[in-house]
Amino acid sequence: MAKPPSSMAKLTRLAALHDVPMTPALSAELRGFLRDGSNLVIAEAAALAAQGNAKELLPDLAAAFERLMVDAEKSDPHCRGKIAVVEALNELEYSESDLLLRGLTHVQNPRWDDPTQDAAGPLRAHCALGLARLNIPGLIVLLTDRLLDPDNAARVGVVRAFSGVGSSAAVPILRYKAMIGDRAEEVMSECFASLLSLAPVESVSFVARFLKSGDQDVQGAAVFALAETRRPDACQILQDFWPLAPTDLHESVLLAMAMMRLSAAFDFLVQLIARKDRAARSAVSALAHHRYNDKLCKSVGAAVEANGDPAVVQWFAKKFSATEANPSSDDASS
Predict the structure, then answer these.
(1) Residue among 237, 242, 240, 243 nearest 225 (CA)
(2) Where are the domains of the chain?
(3) I need a labelling partner for 290 at 20 to 30 A (CA). Which of 2, 169, 173, 308 fits?
(4) Class of 44-51+64-109+116-198 per CATH?
(5) pTM, two decimal places
(6) The pLDDT of residue 324 is above 60
(7) Euclidean distance between the first and final Cα of the chain, in Å?
(8) What pLDDT, on a 0 to 100 scale, did the predictor assign at position 327?
C-alpha cells in the first residue's frame, strides 16, 4: 500500500495551486485538504478557497474550524489554522454568527514571539470583524466588552470592527477609549482612524487634541490619522502643529503632510525648502514620494535653487533621481 503523502508534500502541492483558477476539480481537492489533520495544510487550503471565491466550501471551512477547536493547543498550535479559516469565512461572506461568537472569546497558548500575548488574539480580531459584517443584535455591547481584551491584536480588531458597524452609537465609545488611552500605539491609531471614518467632521478636532499629548507615540498616531483624511481642515491643523512638534516627530509630520496629496500641503513643504528652514532636507525627502509628478518636481527644484544650500541641492539630486521603482498611477497623474 502506498504511503500517504506527508504534510510537507501537501503544502508543496497547495503552493503549486496558487495560480490555478478555481474549478470543480480544484474545489474538490481543497475539500480534501480542509479535512486534513495538519493545521498548516488547513490554513493553506482555506487561503486558496478564499482566493478562488469558492463559496461551496463554506460548510467545509466551518467544519475544519470546529475540529481545530477540539484540544486546540495540540490540534492547532499558534492558532494558524483557525485564523486562516475565519479570514476565509469573512472573505466568502459566511452568514452564521455562532462560530464567530465562539472564536471571539477563544484563548490559547502564549504567542511564540511574545509571551505576554496569546496566540488566539488575531483570531478574536477576525471574529470581531466578521460579527461587525453581520451586524448581529447587541453587537455594540459585545464589542465594548472586548475593548478590555488583554491582547493588542484583538483590541485593534475590535476597534476596527466598531468602524465596520457604521453606527453613530460607536462614536462615544471610541472617544472614551481614546481618552483613557491604550498601551499599544496601534490600538490608538485604529481608534483615531475609526472615529474619523464614522464621524469625520466632529472627529477631526477631537483627534487634534491628542497632538498635545505628552506621549509621542500617541502624537504620531494622531498625525497620521489626520493625514489619512486628506481634509483641508486636517491639513491646516498639521501646519499649525509643525512649529510645536517635538523634534523626534518633525520628519513624521512632514511625511504625513506629503501623504495628503493636497495643494496646500505641497505648498507648505515647498516653502519650507525655499525659506531655508532647518527641515528643508526632510521636506525634500517627504516630497520625493511624488517625484514623478512633473509639476511638483519643478516646484521643488525651484525651491531648492532658491535655498541654495549645497547640501540641500545634493540631497534633492539624490532623492529625486529616477533610479527607484516605477511610480503609482496616483503619483503619475497628480
Answers:
(1) 237
(2) 44-51+64-109+116-198, 261-334
(3) 308
(4) mainly alpha
(5) 0.84
(6) no
(7) 65
(8) 45
